[in-house]
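#onboarding

Welcome to the new folks! Below is a worked example of what a typical request in this channel looks like: someone posts a single protein sequence, and someone else replies with the predicted structure as tokens. Don't worry about understanding the tokens yet, we'll cover that in week two.

Example request:
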Amino acid sequence: MEPLEVLNRGFGGAQISHVIYHFEEIIKPYEPKAIVFFCGTNDLTALKTPKETINDFKKFLSLVRNEFRNIKVYVIGIKPSVDRLYLDKEERIFNSSIKLLASQDAYLEYIDVWDSMLAEDGSRMPELFIEDGLHMNKKGYEVWTKQVRKSLSKDFNI
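Example response:
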């Protein structure tokens, strides 16, 4: 994300409740100018409902607002992983809920990666993922980078 100074605080298998639990360690000490957030898919995989997952996100956002006031939070929507086709409905509900929240909050932005990761016929694209169908390969990250840079460029000089 050059020229931006980025600190990756993500950790594998995280659910939003884990990010909340570790907020004091992984976010607060760094006094971020903005937060790019990707989480939620593991919550749905753990059989939390989209509503429960959104409620956890609202708790996270409240922590951010209490600590940093009005810094911008960019939420990367859940991606259409090949391995998670069985969660299609839940993933779409989560993404549309985040998009709605963002439409009501000038300091929250939804980054939609969903459509750009689908084939022309609307199917999920295995070529964007490693063999497990869940984690992205270089091509998948190129799609993400394009979408994230597009959003961040509105607020930062990149």
